[in-house]
Amino acid sequence: MTARNILVINCGSSSIKFALACEAREGFILHGLAERLGEPGAVLAWQQGDLRDSIDLQGAGHEAALAHLLPLVEKALDGPLHAIGHRVVHGGERFTQACRIDAEVLRAIRDTAPLAPLHNPANLLGIDAAMALYPQLPHIAVFDTAFHQSLPPRAYRYAVPEPLYSEQHVRRYGFHGTSHRYVCHRAAEISGLALGDSNWLSAHLGNGSSTCAIANGQSRDTSMGLTPLEGLMMGTRSGDVDPNLHSHLARTLGWSLERIDHMLNHDSGLLGLSGLSNDMRTLEHARDQGHAGAALAIEVFCYRLAKSLAAMTCALPRLDGIIFTGGIGENSPLVRNLTVRHLHVLNLELDGEANARCVRGVEGPIHLAGHPRVLVIPTNEERQIVLDTLAVLG
Ligand code: AMP
Predict the structure, then answer these.
(1) CB-CB contact of 232 with 303 (8 Å)
(2) Measuring CA to CA, how many Å separate 367 from each of 182, 213, 324, 336, 353?
(3) What's the gap in Å between 205 CA and the centre of ligand 1?
(4) pLDDT digit string (tens) for 171-220?
(5) Do 205 and 124 lie in a common domain?
(6) With 90 as the cut, is the pLDDT of residue 379 above it?
(7) Is 234 assigned to a binding site?
(8) 367: β partners
(9) Distance CA 86, CA 9 (A)
């Protein structure tokens, strides 16, 4: 059989991230990002080998952006395209693994949209546009939530009246599943352990952040819930707050639900607490310059992260290691150091030099010999989507 070529599409509300892979090659043949779609500044940027280029899309939307992008894909290919793998954020309880998209799957993704109103409709835009342009190809959906469908009820149920679960599907779903899955495979691989006989805590720390407890290759608990707002403090998201905050703000300030929603999702987290930025790089720099808000934001971020990791140990029979990934997890020795300091009861201890070295894509262990493993593993969600797409193709 000839090596298969897979295109990965990750469609957001105003962006399309894409990557073209051949199963016989490491890395991507072509990858890039179309952003600010539907706005005057819409642009498509890509990289092929060492070559970087971009074009002005002049306000193009998703379909027009894909129509520009697909000729680039065709040109970069050394043979036919075999399938397109689509990232889908929310698969509800219906999808426990990747699957080929047909009319019924499309309907199910649409039906799940109320649980992810910002994400699933955007994912569907990409699927619809790609299916219109390549109707003859297999299109595969890879769900962020699917990995967490192995959570036991004690981890996924909220303590609210039962009909809210059975009739309204109110439960914890979890997100970032593709990333947590990729890094735990890699962690087992580089540690010489079998995935099916190893136990990990994973911290995916980016603009969105979550922790996950993975026992013998299966997600057993995770910090995000019904929506990606629950759990850790993030770039602009608050993470956990007292659920009565909503009624308190409504009563005392007369705020609407929409305003509270917006505040918790877009004005909170690192940005809200620091009063400066949602970007960890900016905050680290400001902290060094003595900015009190930046220092506090980083401190709260790391303390809450450590608390979440400690809580996640309840889901594991033993701990083989902690994994840091995502833009912050892969690049911030400071965050890793401050977080691990709060976990001394787990006997964790970092090797300062190794911690400093593991940035910008450098993978490796960063713990001191004789202490439990702490690993930095660059995530690669696109690679995992390629692997899942190949697995569905058989
Ligand atoms: P992601 O959503 O995974 O792309 O991660 C974005 C986050 O990673 C932002 O908060 C960035 O500031 C952070 N980040 C990227 N590079 C660095 C770095 N060198 N040091 C600290 N944070 C970083």
Answers:
(1) no
(2) 21, 19, 12, 11, 10
(3) 8
(4) 999 999 999 999 999 999 999 999 999 999 999 999 899 999 999 999 99
(5) no
(6) yes
(7) no
(8) 350
(9) 5
CA dist 191 and 213 (Å) reads 17
User: Which tens digits make up the pLDDT trace of 308-318?
Assistant: 999 999 999 99
**pLDDT average, residue stretch 336-340:** 98
Q: Closest ligand 1 atom to the C-alpha of 282?
A: 12
In this structure, the residue with its CA closest to atom 19 of ligand 1 is 331
pLDDT bin (cut points 50, 70, 90) of residue 118 is confident
User: Domains in the chain: how many in total?
Assistant: 2
CATH of residue 248's domain is 3.30.420.40
Q: What is the pLDDT of residues 75-105, one digit of tens each?
A: 999 899 999 999 999 999 999 999 999 999 9
Structural domain harbouring 258:
193-376
Residue 381 marked ligand-binding: yes
Q: What is the DSSP letter of 275?
A: S
Q: Are residues 139 and 22 in the same domain?
A: yes
53 is in an annotated binding site: no
User: What's the rounded mean pLDDT across residues 8-25?
Assistant: 92
Flag whether 394 is marked binding: no
The model's pTM: 0.94
Last residue of a domain, one of 106, 128, 143: 143
Distance from C-alpha of 175 to C-alpha of 374, rounded to nearest angstrom: 22
Ligand 1 site residues (CB inside 6 A) read: 206-207, 235, 279-281, 284, 326-328, 331-332
Distance 209 CA to ligand 1 centre (A): 11
In the chain, the amino acid numbered 20 is L
Domain check: are 201 and 349 in the same one?
yes
Q: CA-based Rg of the chain, rounded to a whole angstrom?
A: 21
φ, ψ (nearest 5 deg) of residue 190: -75, -15
- Other residues' Cβ atoms within 10 Å of the Cβ of residue 22: 20
Q: How far is the CA of 163 from the centre of ligand 1 (A)?
A: 40
83 with 197, same domain: the answer is: no
> Would the pLDDT of 63 be above 90?
no
How much helix, strand and coil, in percent to the nearest 5, is found in the chain?
45, 20, 40
- DSSP character at residue 276: S
Q: Is 288 a catalytic residue?
A: no
Q: Say if residue 137 is in the same domain as residue 69.
A: yes
Q: Identify the DSSP state of 148.
A: G
Of residues 78, 144, 320, 388, which has the active-site annotation? 144
Average pLDDT along the chain: 96
